[in-house]
């Protein structure tokens, strides 16, 4: 259960998502921000609520952060400035757990971050998910499936974000 401080942060993000008038359901936006930041405990840089990485086109500020990823190969490659810190096989699974120093976008404001978050999901890799952007549960399912881009490498991401969406709908809407 989320604490009062965590719910206050969630309500701020929800209000910002409504105010930004993005096309993605605010409950999904808020739930994803809560999952990616640990309910506000780990905002990246000034205002990166979603763990949006630098990518190849970004020319703004970046911040290097240690993160964890799951891949089905022990030889996953990353482009500089990202670098692998360690790789461990997940017991009993065909997965490898990576610790990686990654470059993340450092947004000047939550509004800028929300706009970039929306642009991310408008890319062609998420075209199967985009039609469901007003249904937070279906949208979450679509970004986690194996069709097009897969948003998260954590195998429990869908279960976790679904639970958080339910909390956001009960406590913030």
Automatic annotation (TrEMBL):
One Pfam family linked to the record: Glucosaminidase
Species the sequence originates in: Segatella copri
Record lineage: Bacteria, Pseudomonadati, Bacteroidota, Bacteroidia, Bacteroidales
Protein name: Mannosyl-glycoprotein endo-beta-N-acetylglucosamidase
GO molecular function, one term: amidase activity
């Amino acid at each position: 259960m989320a604490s009062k401080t965590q719910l206050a942060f969630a309500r701020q993000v929800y209000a910002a998502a409504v105010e930004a008038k993005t096309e993605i359901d605010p409950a999904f936006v808020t739930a994803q921000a809560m999952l990616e930041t640990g309910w506000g405990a780990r905002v990246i840089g000034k205002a990166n609520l979603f763990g949006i990485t630098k990518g190849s086109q970004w020319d703004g500020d970046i911040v290097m952060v240690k993160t964890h990823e799951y891949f089905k190969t022990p030889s996953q490659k990353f482009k500089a400035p990202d670098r692998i810190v360690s790789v461990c096989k997940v017991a009993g699974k065909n997965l490898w757990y990576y610790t990686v120093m990654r470059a993340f976008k450092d947004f000047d404001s939550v509004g800028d971050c929300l706009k970039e978050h929306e642009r991310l999901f408008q890319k062609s890799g998420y075209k199967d998910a985009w039609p469901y952007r007003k249904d937070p549960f279906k949208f979450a399912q679509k970004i986690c499936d194996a069709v097009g881009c897969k948003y998260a490498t954590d195998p429990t991401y869908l279960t976790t974000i679904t639970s958080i969406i339910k909390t956001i709908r009960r406590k913030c809407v």
